[in-house]
Amino acid sequence: MEVDQPKAADRKIIVGIDFGTTYSGVAWAENRNPSRRTCITQWPVSSANKEGQSSDKVPKRMRYSRDNIEWGFSVPVNAPQHEVVEWFKLDLDPSTQAVGHNTSAEGVRSGRNTDELVTDLIAQLVEHLMYTLREKLGSGLVNSTPLQFVITITAIWSDLAKEKTKKACEQAMISAPEHHVHLVSEPEAAAIYALHDLDLDALDPGDTMVVVDAGGGTVDLISYTILSTKPILEVQEAAPGSGALCGSTFLNMRFSKFLQSKLGKEEGFDDEIVAEALDVFENKVKRQFAFNAEPDETYNIPVAGLANNKSLGISRGRFALKASDVHKIFEPVVLEVIRLVKDQITAGNVPVQAILLVGGFGSSNYLKERLRAAIDSSVRILQPPNAWQAIVQGAVLKGFALSSPDSTVVKVENRKARKHYGTEWSVRWDEKSPKSKERKILGSTVSENEPYIAAFVWTNPVSKGRIRTVRMTIYNDPLSRDAPLSRNDNVGILSIVEADVNHIPENQLRRRKGCDGQWYYELNCKIEAVYTSASTSDTLIYQSQRCKSLRDIVVAHGFTSALSPRQGYHPTPASILNFADFDLENTASTAATASSSSSSSASPYLDLPESPDSDAVTILFQILSPRNARTLLLYVWIACCDECKERLEHNDIQRLADEQTISKYERQALRAAVADEENFFWCTSDCGSGQIHDSGSAQPIVVCIKCNHRSCFRHGVNWHEDLSCDEYDRLQEDPEFRSYMELENERWEEAQAAQAAQEAQEEADLDVARRLEAEENAEIERQEAQDRRAREREREREQELERQGNQERQRELERERRRNQEMQRQLEQERHQRQREQNAAEERRKIVARRREEEAKSNATLRTTTKPCGGCGWAIEKRSGW
């Protein structure tokens, strides 16, 4: 599909970056020539060789060596695993942090946090991009042409993870020329590329298709219904996007565990063997494995250094990986993908005509055929060409649309809301106006081209001083099916936006008299929300002025992220009363730590009275220095009136205190408000950090944003590894209780032992068959030797008769020949008889082996579904949940 060319004065370079879990891709194009998009396929293997490896994408691996960074293909495949950092992208979102964090130890990261790792890798990608652009276009053109970056992100990520990704990108691109950074969700980018390349004549308005972006870490899904095909393809979301952690990375994890269990006890087995085996599995086995592969088909996996072992399938440094084992590795992950696809189809509640598979995992033949077998036959399963490049190519196409609406090739007209969004504000009620009942709920249709605007009225008594700030708290609920009318356990803070109205003259602030006879300030404000596939932005509007210099504080999954025009984006722990903010000396933090040691779930900071008295003052001066005590008392007294001891209102504090005091007070008040959230949790380690855990007990693992310590939200203790919360409760009641994981491991070991016994029996049967075959071959050779000797004797006799010329001898020879023929016929009959007996014996052996296999399966089923009766010992059926 062709697009219009922009004017020369608007020249830009559009760059798409697919920042995946295991691989990253980069593509670029000039907006003067949108149809000519270029994917970077040459990657550095060292600092000296910038184009030493050809590949559509580059591995997302890094190794730190002092101040040097090895990345991508420059990290050797056989590099020790304890030196390589990978899969760290998953750490950006606390919900997936455990998966990514467990893959690399702290020492590998050289003291760097996840944000710094992401920044380092993106910086390397941008550096190589700039090298490529200068090689292709020339330094002068590149340095004078603005760049527009479109970064793809996982659709199921939290708003915090998306903001952290954007911040890392902007920080990594400091050295780049003039540029702008935009985000787009991976499934939308993939859909734009896949849909724009489809035959439009085969599409009709009303058709619906599901786009499955199966990548390395996540599988994201989104459904689109076609609205029109001319002049451009216009679509709208048929259901809210969905996804889960079930990408091809988990195939690698399962293969690694399989290899450990199979060969881990062999002498010489180490991390280097695992790394080389994983490289072959990643680049060959996963891509070649097909749904119709024969179970006995094998794939050669290098295991250099391991001794030959026929029972394990090791020969000459190669391990024979059976297709049946690959099937066991693939199937659990593929089943999860199938479940996601079926759920997405159900959520759309409309007939689906096709499923588009994109991404690296999406190009798998096995995944395609399993979906074909699991989904209704009327639904077409499609794999567009270059499925691995679909996301990065779609990011470039999205960049064209953002740069110039006329360049749009696929327009997403409407989307489905992923969450419920709401506020807590008083609104003038007008029962005649339907606007009073308007709201955005999960599944509602939203458009990034049509912002959602809600009006509210901010009031404050004039007697308490003029209004200086207007603040709005935005809430969200991603779990409830119906939009809540008030806050509940599922509702959390999405963001807090605040605008400074000090610049507005007093005479321009509207006032009205209330029914109580008092005068009130009344400010009519609006909040504007824009929903895109990758972000949600809120803007406060007052008197037609958009408050750009507002402070936007995003609160999600344990972070409070402050965004201001001068300072930029600075994530800080969501804890309150940090003594460093009061400029206190070290003695204060020591006293605070001591006071928190009694309980892991209590606040690690000093618990102060609301109204200070003489006893409290005495205690403060005993545990703190005089300077620190006076500073802390100042903040306590700010909140209380010195005469009546009543707590002061926010406006009174602004009127009475100096600017510096107000700034510190508001910061601490905000943090205190966050800590009052029902799902606020203090880390159970000694780090002194607290955070909001939005999912509460539904997802009880809390990963500390400061020290990465894992705690249990439900019990307020360190996370109980290998035990669910219910199992932990049962363990407290019964010390002899065995967890599901322990029982599962025991069953797994029994299954491994049974499998080993079965393989040993199969090997013994093969030895018997090989011995019988050898005996049969020896018998055939012996018979052939006898036949040769008989023929030689016959020729000798014939020669003798010819010399003697005796007719009688000729007749005798004839009789001898007949006897020999008769003997040969008898021998042939005996040989056939032995062959029939051998075949019958072989058939009996096969029957015995098959009965043993069936008996083993029956016993395994019996162990799984029955248990021995405590009285008589007979097998009885297990009850549900036993």
Topology:
Layout: E1 13-19, E2 23-30, E3 38-39, E4 42-43, E5 53-54, E6 58-59, E7 61-65, E8 68-71, E9 85-86, H1 97-101, H2 114-137, H3 139-144, E10 147-153, H4 159-172, E11 179-185, H5 186-196, E12 208-214, E13 219-228, E14 233-244, H6 249-263, H7 271-288, E15 298-302, E16 314-315, E17 318-322, H8 323-348, E18 354-358, H9 365-374, E19 380-382, H10 390-403, E20 410-416, E21 420-423, E22 445-446, E23 452-461, E24 469-477, E25 492-500, E26 511-513, E27 519-531, E28 536-542, E29 545-546, E30 551-556, E31 559-564, E32 568-573, H11 586-595, H12 614-623, H13 626-638, H14 650-656, H15 659-675, E33 680-682, E34 690-692, E35 701-703, E36 710-712, E37 717-718, H16 725-733, H17 740-804, H18 807-865, E38 866-868, E39 875-877
Parallel strand pairs: 1-10, 10-11, 12-18, 14-20, 18-19
Antiparallel strand pairs: 1-2, 2-3, 2-6, 4-5, 7-8, 7-9, 12-13, 13-14, 15-17, 16-17, 20-22, 21-24, 23-27, 24-25, 25-30, 26-27, 27-28, 28-29, 30-31, 31-32, 33-34, 35-36, 36-37, 38-39
Helix pairs in contact: 2-4, 5-10, 6-7, 6-8, 17-18
What is the CATH level 1 assignment of the domain at 8-190? Answer: Alpha Beta
Radius of gyration: 37 Å
Distance between the termini: 60 Å
Structural class: alpha+beta
Query: What is the total tally of β strands?
Result: 39
Q: Bin the strand percentage.
A: 15-25%
CATH level-two architecture of the domain at 8-190? 2-Layer Sandwich
Give the proportion of residues in helices.
Answer: 25-40%
Global shape? elongated
CATH topology of the domain at 8-190: Nucleotidyltransferase, domain 5
The CATH superfamily of the domain at 8-190 bears the name: ATPase, nucleotide binding domain
Question: Main β-sheet: number of strands, strand sense, barrel status?
Answer: 7 strands, mixed
Mean pLDDT over the residues: 75
Number of helices: 18
Uncertain regions spanning at least 5 consecutive residues: 1-8, 434-443, 548-643
Largest beta sheet: strand ordering: 19-18-12-13-14-20-22
Domain IBR: 663-725
GO molecular function: ATP binding; ATP-dependent protein folding chaperone; zinc ion binding
Biased composition (Basic and acidic residues): 775-857
InterPro entries: ATPase_NBD (IPR043129), Hsp_70_fam (IPR013126), IBR_dom (IPR002867)
